[in-house]
Amino acid sequence: MEITFYKEIDSTNSEAKRLVDAGKAPGFAIAAERQTAGRGRFDRVWQTPAGNLALTFAIPAPLSRADLPTLALMTGLALHDILQSLMQDSAKVQIKWPNDMLVNGHKVSGTLIELVGKVLYIGIGVNLVSRPENVPYETFSLADKVKISLEELAQALTQCWNMHLNQWLEFGFTPICEQYNAHLYGRNAPLRISLDRDRTEWASGICTGVTREGHICLRDQNGKITSYNAGDIDIIRRL
């Protein structure tokens, strides 16, 4: 997949959309080392100061969209695999459902997936050389553990994600569901999930993993298991 690198841009997702609108065929990637208007899930600001990686893949949306929600989880597994290979045994990489990356419990990466017409935009942000401050969770920068250039990381992520994408397009999420669960943050432990954008509605219980449909499951104190297809896992910042 072709990658176009930018020194600075408003948003790699926005630039990818502009290129498609201008006639460029999906099947390309946009990378930048600084974003001035990056966004995350729930329209949150995603900080990309100079030197960190912002990367967007633009691909045609699959004709069959039954498995589309699990694309986020497949992306999370691809990110896990490449980041854990970089860390080796120096740190533990986990997936915070559906596709945030944690290193030793600290957030290092986030993903925003958007479907516009017949095109999917998969935006990934990675703290490469610095970490955001003044956020309600602990953060991590790859530079704390490994040395890799932005271009090398973008190429490695693109290659790994493409491999996972091709497998997902052919076989779906079911064959990799167990692998995803093996790296899931909070599995078999108490979790709390906010169910709305304003974080006023919550669900809690013991996390039993995700289903083949990509839903996360919580078991309450009475043993009842409920699955959720959307939400945001709460990570309490340690004081």
Give the % helix.
10-25%
Q: Which value, in Å, is the CA radius of gyration?
A: 17 Å
Give, in spatial order, the strands making up the sheet with the most strands: 1-2-3-7-6-5-4
Instruction: Outline the low-pLDDT stretches.
Output: none
Q: Would you give an account of this structure?
A:
The chain is α+β, with helices and mostly antiparallel strands and 239 residues long. The chain has 2 domains: 2-182, Bira Bifunctional Protein, Domain 2 (BirA Bifunctional Protein, domain 2), CATH 3.30.930.10; 190-233. It is 23% helix and 29% strand. The strands form 2 sheets. Strands 1-2-3-7-6-5-4 form a 7-stranded mixed sheet, sandwiched between helices. The protein has a 5-stranded antiparallel sheet with strand order 11-10-9-8-12. The longest helix has 22 residues, at 150-171. The protein is globular and about 55 Å long. The N and C termini lie far apart (43 Å). The model has no long low-confidence stretch (mean pLDDT 90).
Attribute tags:
239 residues, 4 helices, BirA Bifunctional Protein, domain 2
Topology:
Blueprint lengths: L1 E5 L5 H10 L6 E5 L20 E8 L10 H17 L5 E4 L3 E4 L2 E11 L2 E8 L23 H22 L5 H6 L7 E5 L7 E9 L5 E4 L5 E4 L3 E2 L6
Parallel strand pairs: 1-2
Antiparallel strand pairs: 2-3, 3-7, 4-5, 5-6, 6-7, 8-9, 8-12, 9-10, 10-11
How would you sum up this structure in a few lines?
By secondary structure, the chain is an alpha+beta fold. 23% of the residues lie in helices and 29% in strands. It has two domains: 181 residues, Bira Bifunctional Protein, Domain 2 (BirA Bifunctional Protein, domain 2); 44 residues.
